[in-house]
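Design job #97: recover the sequence.
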């Protein structure tokens, strides 16, 4: 069993190395390895897909009831600032799906990310795991942001009051900043550990 697992890891590593030139500069000798998604990343992806399904269902079930023109941008007071065709909802949904697929693909290659510390053989796996997890949280926050746009626009078009839309937008923005700061600090710790190990 151990030999089979080792062979599988070697195959994954070789596949990752074959794609190295796509994500890593030739002058960069950082280790290239395929990192298995954690249970949390899988849960986050499920949440992202749930938001996409909810957006699709909301648009499809209310499409006939929506006016030709709908409000798609809101001021701090919750008042509409911009009016567009209801087809804009389909564009927002399409962009959401594209971003989900793109970020999901990109997060599978964390060895191509930019890190605040030097990537070495000692800290590579930990850095890649942090980078992949950070991308997963950012992806979820983006899905929440786009879902908020769709739900708020539909609610207002149907006579509702989407005043909470602004607070959700601010919450997502604050969430992105918190996620970035947290993971960057965790990555910085790996630099200190590597320095201590080298002493």
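Job complete. Output follows.
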């Amino acid at each position: 069993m151990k030999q089979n697992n080792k062979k599988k890891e070697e195959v994954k590593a070789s596949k990752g190395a074959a794609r190295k030139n796509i994500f890593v500069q030739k002058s960069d000798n950082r280790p290239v390895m395929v990192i298995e998604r954690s249970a949390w990343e899988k849960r986050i992806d499920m949440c992202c897909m749930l938001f996409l399904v909810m957006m699709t269902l909301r648009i499809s079930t209310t499409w006939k009831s929506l006016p030709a023109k709908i409000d798609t941008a809101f001021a701090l007071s919750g008042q509409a600032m911009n009016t567009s065709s209801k087809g804009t909802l389909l564009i927002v949904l399409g962009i959401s799906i594209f971003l989900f697929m793109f970020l999901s693909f990109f997060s599978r290659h964390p060895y191509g990310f930019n890190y605040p510390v030097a990537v070495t053989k000692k800290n590579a796996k930990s850095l890649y795991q942090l980078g992949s997890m950070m991308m997963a949280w950012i992806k979820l926050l983006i899905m929440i942001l786009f879902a908020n746009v769709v739900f708020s626009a539909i609610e207002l078009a149907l006579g509702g009051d989407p005043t909470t839309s602004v607070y959700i937008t601010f919450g997502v923005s604050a969430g992105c900043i918190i996620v970035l700061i947290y993971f960057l600090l965790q990555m910085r710790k790996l630099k200190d550990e590597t320095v201590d190990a080298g002493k």
